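User: Predict structure, ligand pyridoxal-5'-phosphate.
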Amino acid sequence: MQFENSLAFARRADSEDALSGFRAEFYVPEINGKPSIYLTGNSLGLLPRAAEKAIQTELEDWKNLGVEGHFHGQNPWFHYHKFLTENAANIVGAKPIEVVVMNQLSSNLHFLFVSFYRPNQQRYKIIMEAGAFPSDMYLVESQVKFHGLDPKEAIIEVAPRPGEHALRHEDIIQTIETHKNELALVFFSGVQYYTGQVFNIKSIAAKAHEVGALAGFDLAHAVGNIDLQLHEWQVDFAAWCSYKYLNSGPGSVGGAFVHEKYANDTDLPRFAGWWGHNENERFKMLKGFIPEPGAAGWQVSNAPVLSMSVHKASLEIFAKAGMQRIIKKGQQLNAYLEYIVLAACQNNKFLDLNIITPAAPERGCQLSILTGENGKALFDHLTNHGVIADWRNPNVIRMAPVGLYNTFEDLYKLGQILSDF
Ligand SMILES: *Cc1c(COP(=O)(O)O)cnc(C)c1O
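Assistant: Predicted complex:
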């Protein structure tokens, strides 16, 4: 696509876009009576219109059936998670047996660490990215301490080289090689939340396995954004949230992946609960935990149906739109966003912006822009002109045009607002 910095171009690109009809399936927040330019789908995705009906259906069943909704509701709550499994599995490139929708992201990672971070005398180190999302830092540190280890010795961080913002893939691989004899686990994000860098999950997992370690991933900013083939890439475990690119509402239910190779491994330690127990015996109330095969065996508590109903409606939109088309559109919007930002910098010498997200293929739809001295003032200018972007300390503006509801016109208008700063 040959980009142009014009409204006519943007409108033409939107009209020729196969996904353009999907924007109408979402509520776009308004500012001063006009649709905002919403660029924070990486933080909280927009409300799908279908979610209202979906949640209403469950409220009606609760209203009319009470506890009977567990078995006689329109979507019986007893195995509600199963209504979501296939669509969720398709988004992450997994088999249905490898995926379960449950809990929330950080909680799921803790449960998965119980099974897949099992340090011993020889192997106890975890390699992760420096500057990871705080929840990941806290959870890894607390897991290490839980095993009686010293985080300073057990946690190895891979950092960008001096003067650089993104990690070099070769440095990740080299770090794994350096610590290969003591390494228990490589734990990375799929997309770095601050820089928007896409990590090479396949290659990282392969290297971890080569040295006898496991590989797990936090897919918060990857799911619904980039191509994931967790099964084929032999990822051991992964987890994600549903409220960012998956548009399922604040704090909504998360998802987890456990590779098929562990589906029937009942020897793995795990923290159990009744919802992970063999479904046919769940209500027999007997002693002796027998896990459901696959990821479902990691469930602990019964399904949060109200938040799952929203997630279910949202996943159905992904199934209709098709993940590959969403990825492609996100990449196109991202490329246009970069073009527009660079064009605005040419027009307006007050803009002091530096894109720190590495070039494709190391990026999805997010663009992270390092700002100069007047960064906060620029951010306020954007907000005052109807742009909802996201400020990350110390000085980065993140923008993520998403394939399902953002438009080329959004980005053209953003460029005008930047030029007016
Ligand atoms: C958003 C995000 C989280 C949030 O965790 P919750 O348990 O859903 O609150 C965790 N990790 C990363 C990398 C994130 O981007």
